[in-house]
Design brief:
Helices cover 54% and strands 0% of the residues. By secondary structure, the chain is an all-alpha fold.
Length: 70
């Protein structure tokens, strides 16, 4: 999986990982992003789907690339 993000945001994420890895236990970008994404998924499921998982969606079922005008 890949996605687009401004470099300054990516650099901030890397900084947060590097400077907190001893206290937070996060050892990689993948581990950090997985935890952050799942926290948001769980919030959305609670808000919009009674706390239950949404039906799974395959990789090619979402729109691809950046939206027009961005």
């Amino acid at each position: 999986m890949s996605f687009y993000q401004d470099r300054d945001k990516t650099d901030r994420i890397r900084g947060a990982i590097l400077y907190t890895m001893a206290s937070e236990g996060v050892r990689s970008l993948s581990q950090f992003l997985d935890a952050a994404a799942m926290k948001e998924v769980e919030r959305l499921e609670a808000k919009y789907n009674g706390g239950k998982p949404f039906p799974p969606v395959g990789a090619r079922e979402l729109p691809q690339g950046r939206p027009m005008g961005e």
